[in-house]
């Protein structure tokens, strides 16, 4: 595939999932008082289902309650795959027990006592539009 190679929808989704799998951190953008606010977050995914773990008492949770629109940026890390993925999404804050157990891993022990910690919630990211740029492809757009 040359520099102008394009992917069909299935290939594009596969490339996006691979990029999500290979990039375990992202920047999460929210809106606070009408202004953008961005922070780094650990990224968890199951295919194109994207989840972020956080404390229910954080500013980002308050911001998303006020405005559920968010933006994720991931990729192009040193030593990484050099792909860039930009995700426009709405976010639902959930304490769903099954999802909390699915996302839980030992790295979260620094902040939470376990998957049943009452402060541990999941930001369930629902992509509406994803822009993807791979090493060998031009910018492509996935829409829900």
UniProtKB/TrEMBL annotation:
Listed Gene3D superfamilies: Electron Transport, Fmn-binding Protein, Chain A
UniProt domain Pyridoxamine 5'-phosphate oxidase N-terminal: residue ranges: 12-133
InterPro entries given in the database record: Pyridox_Oxase_N, Split_barrel_FMN-bd, Stress-Dev_Protein
Pfam families hit by this protein: PNPOx_N (PF01243)
Protein's name in the database: General stress protein 26
Source taxonomy: Bacteria, Bacillati, Bacillota, Bacilli, Bacillales
């Amino acid at each position: 595939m040359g520099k102008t190679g394009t992917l069909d929808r299935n290939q594009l989704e596969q490339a996006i999932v691979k990029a999500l799998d290979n990039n375990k951190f992202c920047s999460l953008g929210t809106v606070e008082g009408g202004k953008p606010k961005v922070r780094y977050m650990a990224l968890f995914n199951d295919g194109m289902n994207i989840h972020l773990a956080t404390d229910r008492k954080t500013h980002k949770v308050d911001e998303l309650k006020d405005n559920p629109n968010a933006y994720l940026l991931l990729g192009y890390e040193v030593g990484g795959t050099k792909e860039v993925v930009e995700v426009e999404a709405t976010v639902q804050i959930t304490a769903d027990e099954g999802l909390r157990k699915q996302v839980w891993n030992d790295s979260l022990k620094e902040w939470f006592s376990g998957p049943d910690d009452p402060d541990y919630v999941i930001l369930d990211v629902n992509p509406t539009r994803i822009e993807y740029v791979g090493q060998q492809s031009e910018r492509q757009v996935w829409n829900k």
